[in-house]
Amino acid sequence: MDKKTPFEYICVTCGKSYKKLDGNFPASQSELYAGLEYHLPTCKRCLDKLYEHYCIKLGDEDEAIRRICMKYDIYYDQSLANASRKITKNRSRIHTYISRANLIQYRDKTYDATIDEEQTQTIDSLSDLKNIKENDVDISERTTIKRWGLGFAPDEYEMLNSHLKLLKEQAGDCDFTRESLLKDLCVIKVQQNRAIADKDVDKYDKLTKLYQATLSAADLKQKVSNKDIALNNPDECWGNFTKIIETMSPAEYFKDKQIFEDYDHMHEYYRRFIDRSTNNLINGTNVMDEEFVIKGIEDDD
Predict the structure, then answer these.
(1) Would you kindly state where each structural domain of the chain is located, as residue ranges?
(2) Cα–Cα distance between 158 and 186 in angstroms, integer?
(3) How far apart are CA 106 and CA 81, in angstroms?
(4) pLDDT tens figures, 109-166
(5) Which of 151, 160, 163, 200 stands 20 to 30 A from 41 (CA)?
(6) Is 272 left (phi over 0), alpha (psi -120 to 50) or beta?
(7) Long-range Cβ contact pairs of 126-132 (< 8 A, separation 24 or more)
């Protein structure tokens, strides 16, 4: 029986054949190349030449990377482009970029994701602010830009303002320090949403912990009266009881006596069944409980 001819992968650019995809053709996340087991159809050597060509033609390495990403449906992100610069001289920058664009945090992202992300442009200057249509999110230079600064998208400014309003309602009166913490919470909330959009679980987890720490620093808790705490929340009763007594005044001078009223009659129980019997035992007396003594009749003994 004749042996089967070994299967070969041919580069669509130079025509050279290879026996293996891995190591010869860069990986891809695009469904366009599913038939090539998610590898680009151009070999690494040709991709290096193409990158050098665009570097000369466009005069900018980052733009050269973007142009290749556009051609081959690769996700483009400026932070990834910046990170790809930190490589040794003998490593290819374009292959470093593609390798990092295939990391798990960028799973399923192609150039379509780049287009979607760049459509939500941030306001980075006052000229950008002027380009916003009147029917878009209400963003004024005085109340919004000066409060939050530049660098957010229109819907993010809306989120910042609405979240700050919600936090202020919870916090009540705020001094400068506390309001600064509330604003920090709003910015962290926007960054959390960005991490969710990027499917960056690690970043989202760190931001969540930061949000909780800042929330604690701002001392945001449900506002209830001291009476409600004492009467309706038994888990907090004793600690709040002590705090109120120590910071306000002794109990006998406290204005609202009902806060510390003995609703279970524990003091009466202690006096009748513990204190009375203990005194009888120690002192040899025979003091009877008032409930079981008939007044006016002396004991024959």
Answers:
(1) 9-119, 126-217, 226-260, 262-301
(2) 11
(3) 14
(4) 999 988 877 766 666 666 666 655 443 445 666 567 778 887 788 778 888 888 988 8
(5) 200
(6) alpha
(7) none
